[in-house]
Design a protein that fits this description.
single chain, about 200 residues, alpha/beta, eight-stranded parallel beta barrel, two-stranded antiparallel ribbon, 8 helices
């Protein structure tokens, strides 16, 4: 099983290149105004140009209107969209008509969302903590029986615990933010490399 690696909260070209050189498969750029890791579409677009087409660029949104999501995604030249927050199935499908969607859910909503999106083209589930970006890991053992095949995993992952998370849930991809930072919005190159190495070693 090859597990893909996504590093989220990328705020600069420097961090994008650093992560790409470490071997990540995807970068996340947060466009939710409430985030400490907010980035402009222009910076995200420049970062994408500097890492090349092999690394996926994922725009992260929280409860923003459809027009804003599509306009921002186009300006940033992202390759997929990650959607957080309480959203209607119609809204998710509307976004998925334009971009592959990572639909982020909390543990309490996982079973219902998995049933809803199991056979939906263009929509992949990502399980995250109730407070995304907070650095608090989930209870992976409690989720073993409900974690959907092909889903992505986030929530408090870092170099020291990602192997255990993968062994517990067998996600298709893992996503990390806060445990890879020197400070909010600034990546630590060694931690990013260690994270990728921990995933690839399995």
């Amino acid at each position: 099983m090859t597990v893909r690696v996504k590093v989220c909260g990328t705020t600069s070209v420097r961090d994008a290149v650093l992560s790409a050189e470490a071997g990540v498969d995807a970068l996340g750029f947060i466009f939710a105004p409430v985030s400490r890791r907010l980035v402009t579409p222009q910076v995200a677009r420049e970062a994408g140009l500097n890492v090349g087409p092999v690394v996926a660029r994922i725009g992260v949104f929280l409860g923003q209107g459809l027009d804003e999501v599509l306009r921002t995604a186009e300006a940033a030249r992202v390759s997929a969209v990650q959607l957080h927050g309480p959203l209607s199935s119609l809204y998710v499908r509307q976004v998925a008509a334009y971009y592959p969607v990572l639909r982020v859910v909390r543990p309490a909503d996982l079973a219902a969302e998995a049933d809803m999106w199991r056979d939906e083209p263009g929509v992949t589930l990502m399980l995250d903590a109730p407070e995304p970006g907070g650095g608090v890991p989930l209870d992976w053992a409690a989720l073993r029986d409900v974690f959907p095949r092909g889903a992505w995993l986030a929530g408090g992952l870092g170099p020291a615990n990602v192997a255990a998370a993968i062994q517990a849930l067998r996600p298709a991809a893992v996503d990390a933010v806060s445990r890879l930072e020197a400070r909010a919005g600034v990546k630590d190159g060694q931690l990013v490399s260690d994270f990728v190495r921990a995933v690839r070693s399995l």
